Amino acid sequence: MQLDEKIYFGSRCNDVLAVGELLVDMVSVYDKHQSNTDSYRKFFGGSVANVAINVKKLGIKSVLASAVGKDSLGDFLVNYLKSAGICTDCVQRVDGSTSMVLTNKSSSTPTPIFYRAADYYIYYSEKLEKTVSNSKIVHFSCWPISRSPSRETIEKVLATAKANNVLVCFDPNYHRQICDNRLPEETSLKHIKSIMGMVDIIKPSEDDAERIFGKDSVHNQIEKFLNLGAKLVIMTLGKDGAIVSNGADVLRYETLATEVVNTTGAGDAFWSGFYAAAIKGYSIRDAVSLGSAASAYKLKSLSSVSELPALEQLKKLYKFDCSEVDA
Questions:
Q1: 327 pLDDT higher than 50
Q2: Closest of 109, 114, 115 to residue 31, by C-alpha
Q3: What pLDDT is attached to residue 177?
Q4: What is the secondary structure of 298-323 as a DSSP string?
Q5: Is the pLDDT reported for residue 283 higher than 90?
Q6: What is the model's pTM?
Q7: pLDDT per residue over 106-136, tens digit each?
Q8: How many C-beta neighbours within 10 Å does residue 241 have?
């Protein structure tokens, strides 16, 4: 992937298919350690679900494939999607409680507590297969590949995506706590690493890379992702911005954030700005800049899903003069 060129997509009716976690985020009202807080606010959440919502706000089409319980929290999430204009045909209602994450409001990396049940019961279906084939981008995370049956569903999704020249993008948001604790950690990590050979673009944070590979320099971590098969690596570095590499060229980006209220969902906003820009015809270089702008905008909000403006408004707000690349 050439960094100064646009990504060419085929003619498809949907822009982004996000496959993975849809859950409730319970965020502490105050910036305290969880053992010292007893007040939480309920938010729509799940990294993959956030992307589906955000890209719609930025002006492109999205579909979410996920699973929630047949309970009031599941109703809350499905109704939120409908109110946002997101198609819920690929959101399955299953036995088991809707999944939840408790996290502390934080200006640094938050400490989550995971309660998983329904989210990994995503089953492959004819409807999902058709949606993959009719999408320009498939986006997924570590959540659905960390447990079965959604692990097998993702494998089928990726095979269908590759057969139809759909761009595959992976958020390696690995946490040991989301995996099946009956399996050794090296087994979970081995599976995550094996998936990367089917991935076009991967966006790890420094914390993601350390959880997967252990401590190392940023450049060494990027090289590890490339060696596993990823075509383009975008590593976000928090207050230090981001580094992008395709194995031949490296670009460094400074952070655009001026105010940090809560970091939860900032990576999802980055993905969303990047996708919206790429779909609208911006080069990879400029799409990363617009992803950074979306992330900076989100950092000012307590919710993991921010009221992102349209992409053109985001450009004006952060004074970008980049333009779409002619086809």
A1: no
A2: 109
A3: 92
A4: HTT-SSSS-----HHHHHHHTT----
A5: yes
A6: 0.91
A7: 555 667 899 999 999 999 999 999 999 999 9
A8: 15
Q: Which helix (H) or strand (E) segment is 107 a member of?
A: none
Q: Is 183 helix (H, G, I), strand (E, B) or coil?
A: coil
Buried-state track 83-107, b at ≥16 Cβ within 10 A, e below 16: ebebbbebbbbbebbbbbbbbbbbe
Smallest CA-to-CA distance from 118 within 177, 62, 77 is with 77
CA dist., res. 103 & res. 259, Å (int): 20
- Poorest-confidence range of 13-17, 25-29, 170-174, 300-304? 300-304
Task: Say which residue the tokens 């094996």 belong to.
Answer: 194
Question: 7 falls in which pLDDT band (50, 70, 90)?
Answer: very high
CA 308, CA 53: separation in Å to the nearest integer?
Answer: 10
Enumerate residues 6+ apart whose C-beta is below 8 A from 191.
Answer: 145, 151
How far lies 27's CA from each of 24, 91, 128, 280, 301, in Å? 9, 24, 31, 33, 12
Give the rounded distance of the alpha carbon of 197 from its chain centre. Answer: 18
Q: To which H or E segment does residue 81 belong?
A: helix 72-83
Beta bridge partners of 114: 101
Q: At 141, is the pLDDT very low, low, confident or very high (cuts 50, 70, 90)?
A: very high
Give residues with Cβ within 8 angstroms of 194, minimum separation 6. none
Q: Within 10 A of 187 (CB to CB), how many other CB atoms are there?
A: 12
**DSSP state letter for 128:** H
As a whole number of angstroms, the distance between CA 48 and CA 139 comes to 7
Cα–Cα dist 137/100, whole Å: 26
Check residue 127 and give its pLDDT: 97
Say how far apart CA 95 and CA 285 lie, in whole Å. Answer: 44
Q: Where are the beta strands (DSSP E) in the chain?
A: 14-19, 23-28, 40-45, 62-69, 91-94, 100-103, 113-115, 135-141, 167-171, 201-202, 232-236, 242-245, 250-253
Helices and strands (H, E) in the chain, number of each type: 11, 13
